[in-house]
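To: structure desk
From: M.T.
Subject: fold request, one chain
Message: Could you run this one when you get a chance? Sequence is below, nothing fancy, just the single chain.
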Amino acid sequence: MPKACFQPDGGRDAPTLGPGAILASALCHWGKRLAAALAVAATVAPGAGLASGSACTGRAAQQTGKFHAAAVVTGDADWKQEWAKGAHAAPPAFTPAAEMAPGDKARLLVFFSNPLTDMGGAHVDCAIRVTRPGGQVSGLPAQRCFDTKLSGEASDFYMTRLGADIAVDDKYPVGTWQVDVVLTDVLAQRTVPLHFCYHVADKPGGQG
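Reply: Done. Structure tokens follow.
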């Protein structure tokens, strides 16, 4: 299956999702024919071990008109291999990291489907806002996160280049991290807001 890759921007001006967070690392965009309109969200496995009792799920999915968007914070170390499965494989599934503790690592993934296209190409902007447990806010304004010819059907899901690596250590702020991501289909002028959270405890199984 053809692919188009973006080069990393070095993570400059990245919103802080914790020490060492990097935004817009080099990712390939693979068209995936998924069974349902929001199958990326439907196929993520239920979050496990919500020890804090928080309502955080580590994922979100929404649509405006035909334009769909989904995001997940996954602790799957093999997420790249899962996404790069062949066209005839089962739809990719990602386990949300809704609850984390020191030593855990995760990755923020953001997807879209059904953009308006021009000559086979799609143009999507992404903005992100992260609110730490203490209320400190960081983020990036809207900027192009997908700008290339689609490698499959518009109804496939595509991964944007908006992403962040999360590595929880002893200095990582404990509590609930709120994440807001806004995707805009530039050609159709349709915007989809996503909101979700993940919880960080001070120790595995802790209340945080």
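Reply (cont.): The chain has a mean pLDDT of 75. Let me know if you need anything else for the meeting.
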